[in-house]
Amino acid sequence: MNDDVTTGGIGRRAVLCGAGALGAAAVTAGCASQPRRARPAADLRGKEIAKTADIPVGGGKVYADTKLVVTQPAQGQFKAFSANCTHSGCLCNRVNNGVIECPCHGSHFRVADGSVAQGPASRGLLEYSVQVRGDGIVVV
Protein backbone atom coordinates (compact mmCIF):
# COMPACT_ATOMS: atom_id res chain seq x y z
CA MET A 1 0.00 0.00 0.00
CA ASN A 2 1.44 3.39 -1.00
CA ASP A 3 0.73 6.09 1.59
CA ASP A 4 1.24 8.84 -1.01
CA VAL A 5 -1.67 7.67 -3.10
CA THR A 6 -4.14 6.70 -0.38
CA THR A 7 -3.73 9.62 2.01
CA GLY A 8 -2.50 12.38 -0.28
CA GLY A 9 0.36 13.01 2.18
CA ILE A 10 3.99 12.13 2.32
CA GLY A 11 4.63 8.40 2.40
CA ARG A 12 7.00 6.41 4.54
CA ARG A 13 9.35 5.87 1.61
CA ALA A 14 9.64 9.59 0.91
CA VAL A 15 10.27 10.38 4.58
CA LEU A 16 12.92 7.67 4.90
CA CYS A 17 14.66 8.69 1.67
CA GLY A 18 14.67 12.32 2.76
CA ALA A 19 16.05 11.46 6.19
CA GLY A 20 18.78 9.34 4.61
CA ALA A 21 19.78 12.16 2.27
CA LEU A 22 19.91 14.66 5.14
CA GLY A 23 22.05 12.31 7.20
CA ALA A 24 24.50 11.79 4.36
CA ALA A 25 24.73 15.55 3.77
CA ALA A 26 25.41 16.18 7.47
CA VAL A 27 28.19 13.58 7.55
CA THR A 28 29.76 15.01 4.40
CA ALA A 29 29.59 18.57 5.71
CA GLY A 30 31.09 17.51 9.03
CA CYS A 31 34.01 15.81 7.33
CA ALA A 32 34.67 18.72 5.00
CA SER A 33 34.96 21.22 7.82
CA GLN A 34 37.74 19.36 9.63
CA PRO A 35 41.32 20.11 8.58
CA ARG A 36 43.07 17.02 7.31
CA ARG A 37 46.38 16.62 9.12
CA ALA A 38 49.12 14.44 7.74
CA ARG A 39 52.01 12.81 9.48
CA PRO A 40 55.17 14.00 7.78
CA ALA A 41 57.31 11.50 6.00
CA ALA A 42 60.37 10.58 8.02
CA ASP A 43 62.60 12.56 5.65
CA LEU A 44 60.60 15.76 6.32
CA ARG A 45 60.28 15.58 10.10
CA GLY A 46 62.63 18.11 11.68
CA LYS A 47 63.63 19.46 8.28
CA GLU A 48 63.67 23.17 7.53
CA ILE A 49 61.39 23.59 4.53
CA ALA A 50 61.44 27.37 4.09
CA LYS A 51 62.77 30.65 5.42
CA THR A 52 60.24 32.96 7.07
CA ALA A 53 61.45 35.89 4.96
CA ASP A 54 60.51 34.01 1.75
CA ILE A 55 56.82 33.62 2.62
CA PRO A 56 54.69 36.74 2.06
CA VAL A 57 51.89 37.64 4.48
CA GLY A 58 48.57 36.58 2.92
CA GLY A 59 50.37 34.42 0.40
CA GLY A 60 52.82 31.59 0.14
CA LYS A 61 55.31 29.68 -1.93
CA VAL A 62 55.28 26.27 -3.61
CA TYR A 63 58.33 24.05 -3.11
CA ALA A 64 58.22 21.47 -5.92
CA ASP A 65 61.23 19.53 -4.58
CA THR A 66 59.40 18.61 -1.35
CA LYS A 67 55.89 18.86 -2.86
CA LEU A 68 54.89 21.33 -0.15
CA VAL A 69 53.20 24.72 -0.11
CA VAL A 70 54.14 27.03 2.76
CA THR A 71 51.80 29.92 3.54
CA GLN A 72 51.58 32.85 5.95
CA PRO A 73 47.86 33.67 6.30
CA ALA A 74 48.56 36.30 8.97
CA GLN A 75 51.75 37.97 10.19
CA GLY A 76 53.88 35.33 11.96
CA GLN A 77 51.42 32.46 11.35
CA PHE A 78 52.89 29.80 9.05
CA LYS A 79 51.19 26.75 7.54
CA ALA A 80 52.41 23.90 5.34
CA PHE A 81 50.29 21.79 3.02
CA SER A 82 50.85 19.02 0.53
CA ALA A 83 51.17 20.59 -2.91
CA ASN A 84 49.39 17.59 -4.46
CA CYS A 85 45.90 18.61 -5.57
CA THR A 86 43.25 16.36 -4.05
CA HIS A 87 41.34 16.25 -7.33
CA SER A 88 43.77 14.31 -9.51
CA GLY A 89 47.16 14.60 -7.81
CA CYS A 90 48.65 17.33 -9.99
CA LEU A 91 51.20 19.55 -8.32
CA CYS A 92 49.83 22.95 -7.33
CA ASN A 93 52.19 25.48 -8.86
CA ARG A 94 51.36 28.95 -7.58
CA VAL A 95 49.98 31.00 -4.69
CA ASN A 96 48.02 34.06 -5.79
CA ASN A 97 45.41 36.32 -4.18
CA GLY A 98 45.08 34.20 -1.04
CA VAL A 99 44.69 30.85 -2.82
CA ILE A 100 46.90 27.94 -3.80
CA GLU A 101 46.29 27.15 -7.47
CA CYS A 102 46.36 23.87 -9.35
CA PRO A 103 47.09 24.31 -13.07
CA CYS A 104 45.55 21.02 -14.24
CA HIS A 105 41.82 21.57 -13.69
CA GLY A 106 41.62 24.94 -11.91
CA SER A 107 41.13 23.92 -8.28
CA HIS A 108 41.98 26.60 -5.70
CA PHE A 109 42.70 26.12 -2.00
CA ARG A 110 42.67 28.76 0.77
CA VAL A 111 46.09 29.72 2.20
CA ALA A 112 44.66 29.89 5.73
CA ASP A 113 43.59 26.27 6.05
CA GLY A 114 44.02 24.44 2.73
CA SER A 115 40.25 24.13 2.26
CA VAL A 116 38.70 24.15 -1.21
CA ALA A 117 37.96 27.65 -2.51
CA GLN A 118 37.08 26.46 -6.03
CA GLY A 119 36.60 22.97 -7.44
CA PRO A 120 36.65 20.49 -9.04
CA ALA A 121 38.58 19.32 -5.94
CA SER A 122 36.16 18.37 -3.18
CA ARG A 123 38.67 17.86 -0.33
CA GLY A 124 41.17 20.26 1.13
CA LEU A 125 44.93 19.85 1.03
CA LEU A 126 46.69 17.78 3.67
CA GLU A 127 48.20 20.00 6.36
CA TYR A 128 51.54 19.43 8.07
CA SER A 129 52.39 20.83 11.50
CA VAL A 130 55.22 23.34 11.45
CA GLN A 131 57.19 25.49 13.88
CA VAL A 132 59.34 28.54 13.40
CA ARG A 133 62.89 27.97 14.60
CA GLY A 134 65.05 31.04 14.24
CA ASP A 135 64.40 32.27 10.71
CA GLY A 136 63.37 28.83 9.40
CA ILE A 137 60.10 26.93 9.15
CA VAL A 138 60.43 23.31 10.28
CA VAL A 139 58.07 20.34 9.90
CA VAL A 140 57.29 18.76 13.27
From TrEMBL:
- KW RNA-binding (keyword) present: no
Gene3D superfamilies, sorted: Rieske [2Fe-2S] iron-sulphur domain
Which key words tag this protein in UniProt? 2Fe-2S, Disulfide bond, Iron, Iron-sulfur, Metal-binding
Gene Ontology terms, MF aspect = 2 iron, 2 sulfur cluster binding; metal ion binding; monooxygenase activity; oxidoreductase activity, acting on paired donors, with incorporation or reduction of molecular oxygen
Give the domain of life. Bacteria
Q: What does this gene product do? A: Iron-sulfur subunit of the cytochrome bc1 complex, an essential component of the respiratory electron transport chain required for ATP synthesis. The bc1 complex catalyzes the oxidation of menaquinol and the reduction of cytochrome c in the respiratory chain. The bc1 complex operates through a Q-cycle mechanism that couples electron transfer to generation of the proton gradient that drives ATP synthesis.
Report the protein name in the record: Cytochrome bc1 complex Rieske iron-sulfur subunit
